[in-house]
Amino acid sequence: MKEQIEQLMRTAFEQNASDLHLTVGVPPVLRINGELSYHGEEALKPRDTEGMARALVSEPLWKMFEKRGELDFSHGIRGVSRFRINMYFQRSCVSLAIRTIPTEIPSLESIHMPKVLEDIASKPQGLILVTGPTGSGKSTTLASMIDYINRHHNRHIITLEDPIEYLHTHNKSIIDQREIGFDTQNFANGLRSSLRQDPDIILVGEMRDLETISTAITAAETGHLVFGTLHTTNAPATIDRIIDVFPASQQPQVRIQLAGVLGAVVSQRLFKTASGSGRRAATEILINNSAVKNLIRNEKIHQVPTVMQTNKAAGMHTLEMDVEALLNEGVISEEAAQPYIRNEGS
């Protein structure tokens, strides 16, 4: 069974599929350039998916999976690639969602990220948030930013990931990568203990709860550069999400803290290119300046988009502005861009 699933993973890698889905009742499914397509004609049976899942994990992990109903882990095939895997039960059968992780960490330039991300990555301290829906390329952007730091700056970087995706090697920086569930219990514990490990930079794979968010803000306040991700769709929603996690009585103080530590918010979406040959990220970038600080402190987050629109020279822009630029350049189609562009007449 291990041979069978690894062959499917090889196929996904060779066909440049971002994801491979194995679920009972249909053949294996590949996601290529955002589109789903069947691989083969033979539908998978319950014994197939369970056998393949069991082949990838140890007995203790399988018991943990049976208890929890889902499990995140990574798997590497020598000479091919690494894969991020989530296996879960659905209708009492095992399903697997497998994400292909590129073998090399792409540069910010190669993934067409704005030049300002290099400046953001070079900040000495603060909170940098990379946001977007699942599958929008957040992990890749963060890995590219960490790689940029690694190649240009002398830093001690600690990452907390669930699971570890891109493997970094020490260059100018020292990078310690910790996997949730293996190297540390959870994000909150890992983040708290990282403050005692003399870091310059901390990457928090996901800021899911009050304790993690609170500790991340404290870490940024105490002179660290903290990177984190959230599943929010734009910069204003990101600021609101951070504040709304806290009880109402704490929110005025959190506004003041966040206004002080926020470095930047990078929100992104992936769009299929007009040629159909790949996908391209559109971004929204907010850099915290005196105007943004005042808006955060005074609960005027709804005015943040205006600041982004009028500070293009400082590297800021809204998602709509970037989508329009990509459309005008012919990179993405009008059909893909339309939901993100407001019509003047409407």
Automatic annotation (TrEMBL):
Pfam families, sorted: T2SSE
InterPro entries (UniProt xref): AAA+_ATPase, P-loop_NTPase, PilT/PilU, T2SS/T4SS_dom, T4SS_GSP_E_ATPase
PROSITE patterns: T2SP_E
Gene3D superfamilies per record: 3.30.450.90, P-loop containing nucleotide triphosphate hydrolases
Domain Bacterial type II secretion system protein E: 195-209
Domain of life: Bacteria
MF GO annotations: ATP binding; ATP hydrolysis activity
Signal sequence, start to end: none
NCBIfam families: pilT_fam
Family: Belongs to the GSP E family.
PANTHER family: TWITCHING MOTILITY PROTEIN PILT
Name this protein carries in UniProt: Twitching motility protein PilT
Species whose genome carries this gene: Salsuginibacillus halophilus
